[in-house]
Amino acid sequence: MGYEFDFSSVLTDQYIDWLISGVRITLLLTAGAWIIAFVIAVVLAVLRATNFRPAVWLVAVFVEVHQNIPLLVQVLFWYFAMPELLPEAWRDWLVRNNSEFILAMIAIAMCTAAYMSEALRSGLRAVPVTQYEAGRSFGFNYLQTMSYIVVPQALRLSVPPMVNHSLLLFKNTSIAMAIGVHELTYQTRQIDSDTFRTFEVFLVATGLYLVLSFIIMFVGNLIERRFSMGTR
């Protein structure tokens, strides 16, 4: 006998609310991790562009560690190991303020920052040397030259890979399920456990992930075109 599809059992009001909640948590996790990752990536890329060898070495170690350790292991490390190194007051604060979400966001952000920093470093290397000289001619120091002249141009050049890393970050949020973050994949598993309609519920979740991914890609393409027009 063939498989009988039954979406009515997984699209009840209760389960739709669970899915909406999962989407909301996924988007919040994506946004928070992206902001943290972007800020760290800019700092790492600028430090690696300096001639200060200790800073260059430390950034290189950070990038290699986060690029070569599975993200799941990083998330588990942040959740189970890192709190042990914190003062008791900080641990208590994390417990009271959704430690699973916060630590998953930090872990995903750190990993993404390693990849974003490499994209930004490539952008920095593509900026002509004359731009650095222009900064010096205006009397800018190194930090001012990077902030006002070089980094903005590097960001424009880095938009395509940054969009790809942003999409990857969004998809990586599903790993947060491993430590109990109630994002979309977690809620999907909960509905599956309640209904035993594995195919239907994961098909719905797949559709939601596809729609959200297409939206991110669409927004990224708009940003890329806008920056491209700005450079003409």
Task: Describe the 3D structure.
It is found in: Cell inner membrane; Cell membrane. This is Polar amino acid transport system permease protein. Its main location: membrane. Belongs to the binding-protein-dependent transport system permease family. HisMQ subfamily. The chain has 232 residues and is mostly helical. It has one domain: Orthogonal Bundle (MetI-like fold), CATH 1.10.3720. The chain has 10 helices and no strands. Helix 2 packs across helix 5, helix 3 crosses helix 5 and helix 5 packs antiparallel against helix 8. It is globular, with a radius of gyration of 21 Å. The N and C termini lie far apart (62 Å). The mean pLDDT is 90.
Label this structure with key terms.
AA_ABC_transptr_permease_3TM, Polar amino acid transport system permease protein, 232 residues, MetI-like fold, membrane
Could you give a short description of this structure?
With 232 residues, the protein is an all-alpha fold. 79% of the residues lie in helices and 0% in strands. It has one domain (13-230): MetI-like fold (Orthogonal Bundle), CATH 1.10.3720.
The helical percent reads over 70%
Low-confidence stretches: none
Name of the level-1 CATH class = Mainly Alpha
Domain count: 1
- The total of helices stands at 10
**What Rg is obtained from the alpha carbons, in whole angstroms?**
21 Å
How far from one another are the termini?
A: 62 Å
In sequence order, what are the helices and strands, one letter per element?
HHHHHHHHHH
Give me the secondary-structure category. mainly alpha
CATH architectural group: Orthogonal Bundle
Mean pLDDT: 90
Q: Any idea of the CATH topology?
A: MetI-like fold
Instruction: Estimate the strand proportion.
Output: under 5%
